[in-house]
Amino acid sequence: MERLRKRVQMLIVDNDRSVVEAIQNCFPSSRYHCTTTTRAEGALELMKHTRFRVVISPARLHGMSGTAFLHRGRMRNPHAAFLVLANQVEGTLAAEALQNGASGCIYRPFEPEDICASVERVLKQQELRLTEEIFDTLSTATLRKRVEHLHNVLQQSELPNSPTLDLLIAGLDSRQSEMNLHSLRVRNLCVLLAERCGYSKEKVPKLAESALLHDIGKIAVPASILLKPGKLTQQEFEVVKQHTRLGHQVLSRIPHLQHAADVALSHHERVDGTGYPFGLTRDSISLEARIFAVADTADVITAGRPYSLPRTMAQARAELARCSGSQFDADVVDVFLTISDQEWQLTREEVRRQYQALQPFFKQPAAFIGPLQQLAQ
Q1: Taking a C-beta distance cutoff of 8 angstroms, is the pair 150, 376 a contact?
Q2: How far apart are the first and last CA of the chain?
Q3: C-alpha angle with apex 191: 303 to 186, nearest 5 degrees?
């Protein structure tokens, strides 16, 4: 049963048994579990008990029009992709099916390669749609409850000497024990690296805020994914990837934090163009994001992740040097490699002092700290 569940469930329907068998023979049983029938009512009955991912059926069925079958079938398997078989004189029926929700049309006579390509195409479309639906669900279920709290907290961060941003990020980082205080450490390391790169001193405070807020979009990523000890599935990784867009969306709506939106959006871009969300290359990635990417990775390597044990500073340097010019800006990496272990350690010790200074605020009245606690849950 376990093996069966992992295969693609596909229903093949046609008036001609030989056609059904020919289509079935196109698909390896190791990947597809094909259920076949020559009866429309029989197919609808099967759809009452099985959630098929793909249904292949003709434009005309004995005793039922193709459109009627499509309508009733979609009511029983609303998430299935329906592919319609049609010959050249059934173009009108095929167009009608497409207008009524069919995912595609396969014209007879068909080659095995054509029908396999059509099925693979709709399966990929399903996976993309499912990922979008998952993220939409996360966004509405999580952000609808939290966005008001988030905006209240971020608005407070504009007040003079407010510790709100540090409190907020420390709370969010605490969801991942291995990454506890990650954003605070990255902020300090990012500032040190930027100064060594000759970055404008006037812009450093805004860069520091950008580094601190880079993962704000993870408020919509479930803890079950963030804390997963093993490798993420492709679907889970697609959900995680959305935190860059969400972070940009949230920060770009806060006037005094709009400068942080770019780093939130592009901190997973790679200089060779293989990053996300847009696949930007070096010259299209802001200097701020390129500096941040190096500081962020250095801390991730040395702090560890749920799926990766902490490594040494020497190992972090070796990894950054290995990926210089592909994942990271080579010039920024070269500057980073001049930072001594002692300087690096001092930035981490400073974070611990900063965090200790925040402790009294965690004891503040609920009116102040309440939104932070709700965001960190």
Answers
A1: no
A2: 37
A3: 20
Tell me the pairing of strands 32-37 and 54-58. Answer: unpaired
pLDDT in tens, the chain (377 residues): 333 345 889 999 999 999 999 999 999 998 999 999 999 999 999 998 888 999 999 998 988 888 899 999 988 888 789 999 998 888 888 888 888 889 999 988 889 999 999 999 998 887 766 555 444 444 444 444 554 555 555 554 544 344 556 555 655 554 444 445 788 899 999 999 999 999 999 999 999 989 988 988 887 788 788 878 778 888 889 989 999 998 888 888 777 788 899 999 999 999 999 999 999 999 999 999 999 999 999 999 998 877 778 899 999 999 999 999 999 999 999 999 999 999 988 988 888 887 777 666 544 434 333 443 444 34
Phi, psi of 29, deg, nearest 5: -70, -20
Measured between alpha carbons, how far is residue 318 from residues 274, 312, 314, 334 in Å?
21, 10, 6, 12
β-strands 60-61, 64-65 pairing:
antiparallel
The pTM score is 0.56
* Sign, CA torsion 241/242/243/249: positive
Residue 105 tokens, joined: 């049309």
Would strands 32-37 and 60-61 be described as parallel, antiparallel, or unpaired? unpaired
**DSSP sequence for 80-108:** PEEEEEE-GGGHHHHHHHHHTT--EEEES
**Domains along the sequence of the chain with CATH:** 2-110 (3.40.50.2300), 146-376 (1.10.3210.10)
- 12: tokens are 């093949």
Q: Which two three-digit tokens encode residue 83?
A: 């592919």
CA distance 303 to 308: 9
Q: How far apart, in whole angstroms, are the C-alpha atoms of residue 45 and residue 58? A: 17
Whether the CB-CB separation of 38 and 14 falls below 8 Å is answered with yes
Instruction: Determine how many CB atoms are found less than 10 A away from the CB of residue 172.
Output: 21
